[in-house]
Fold:
Amino acid sequence: MTFPRLRLLYVTGNSMYPGLAYGDCAIVKLRMDESEPLPSVGSIVLFRHGPKNWEFVKRVAATPGDLVPGSSETVPLHHVWVLGDNPKWSSDSRHFGAIAAAELVGTVILRIPIGIGPGATDSIAYDT
Structure:
């Protein structure tokens, strides 16, 4: 039996509010390798992108073959299109394009809402 690798994530921005608030924690199921299926639309993912390999947390808005939201283009094979829940404060695929499968670190499976921001709540949300 193989157990999933997990990672604790601390949210430090407002780009995913109200899905994730500043100060919330989340448990991320790490991808074992690129052969794993891509996350589905609606999943919240952790990925590395850019010359400094910064980590971002965003929601998958489209998968390969889907239309890019607000465009007539489609998402390329082995990529996902990601958007922040709070578009006014989000750097996402609208700014840097589709995210390659190789850049995906994992998928958020549990949100621990201990945030200090406007999205702080007293309930736990999870995705299986």
